[in-house]
Amino acid sequence: MDSIVVLSWFLCVLVVAARGGLGAVSRDIFILAGQSNMAGRGGVFGGKWDGDVPEECRPSPWVFRLSAGLEWEEAREPLHADIDVGKTCGVGPGMAFANEVVKARGAGGLVGLVPCAVGGTKIGQWSRGTRLYDELVQRAMQAIGGGTIRAVLWYQGESDTVRKKDAEGYKDKMERFIMDLRSDLNLPSLLVIQVALASGEGKFIEKVRRAQMGITLPNVKCVDAKGLRLKPDKLHLTTMSQVQLGIRLARAYLDSTTHHHYQFNFNINHTQVLAC
Questions:
Q1: Within 13 A of 211's CA, how many CA atoms are on the CB side?
Q2: Selected catalytic residue, list 50, 82, 172, 233
Q3: Is residue 216 part of a domain?
């Protein structure tokens, strides 16, 4: 995108923010949900985060996050520090995802991330009526006031690899979760991008992976994490693997019909935005 257009759009954002605060600036919102690999364990060793933030995960004036207190703030690693409070959080895929989306589309609006992931959780703990599900819906509804939810990024299932029964029931529970969430958010075509497992806590990893890749609901995409480098615990992705995953998730979103529909509408209204 032409540098003059980018500068003009950025000045417009500053003007709108000055008039009505950050809440007045529309965002493309992405829900980050699942368990520890979505919450981020990159760079965490011995219960401490090493503080290393790759270039792809640095803060950006275009990227914000919804805090545990339901306030928009500048997004920075660790994104889930005040959400997944039971364990130490490090680098996850969220910031790399957001920065890749911003880079790929140019000055097309702010990105709002809504961290919801909690380590060690099974798919059953995300079913409608549970605490995790209710909190996800609450945070998503709060976020809608500041923009439009474009997709749910989902990375979960490691805890469902321990028992054969859990692994065999994964597909049905995941499909029910997606349908319930779309219904409760009144977004029947909500894009869900799930990550096929790279690891697991038990021996039924392939059963869960087959369940994930076997989901045929419309507007559900799958990004495979298999082959990404793991930490010595053989369960969590390394920092750079999280970066690679975030970029893969971004490309899956950018290739989606959801994003192309947004781009079409954005191009039509772009002159109106610049004329603010």
A1: 24
A2: 233
A3: yes
